[in-house]
Amino acid sequence: MIALSVLQLFLSTIIFGETIKLALYNRNLKRIYNQIESLFSVKDLHKNIEGYSPQIIKLYVSYETNISWGGILLDSDIFNKLNPTLSKKWEQIKKEFTISKV
């Protein structure tokens, strides 16, 4: 009985910890997305892309750091299932922010 209780406590702690980690990962991802969206809303971005290099690099590093820290891997089945839908959304985002011209 004691071993079962300890095992349940241990597994509950792991699940709780991973849930918190996922919530923090998502919060950071939303923050980075909002910063990217703000950057692409700047009027002269397309005319002076070199002037925004530090911000672009910082956002890229923040994004990659978040992925590394989170250690969240996407299953290939999920990727294959979501890829067509997300690709369409990405094309819409590129049009909205004229990203393809950058």
Commentary on this structure:
The chain is mostly helical and about 100 residues long. The chain is about 75% helix and about 0% strand. The radius of gyration is 19 Å and the shape is elongated.
Q: Helix content range of the residues, please?
A: over 70%
Tell me the series of helices and strands, N- to C-terminal: HHH
Overall outline: elongated
Distance between the termini: 63 Å
Largest sheet: none
Query: Which consecutive residue ranges, at least 5 long each, have pLDDT under 50?
Result: none
Q: Pairing-aware structural class of the strands and helices?
A: mainly alpha
Count of discrete domains: 2
| Mean pLDDT rating | 89
Radius of gyration over all CA atoms, rounded: 19 Å
The DSSP helix count reads: 3
- Percent strand equals under 5%
What are the salient characteristics of this protein?
2 domains; 102 residues
Describe the structure concisely.
The chain is mainly alpha-helical.
List the topology elements.
Blueprint (H helix, E strand, L loop, with lengths): L1 H39 L12 H18 L5 H21 L6
Helix pairs in contact: 1-2
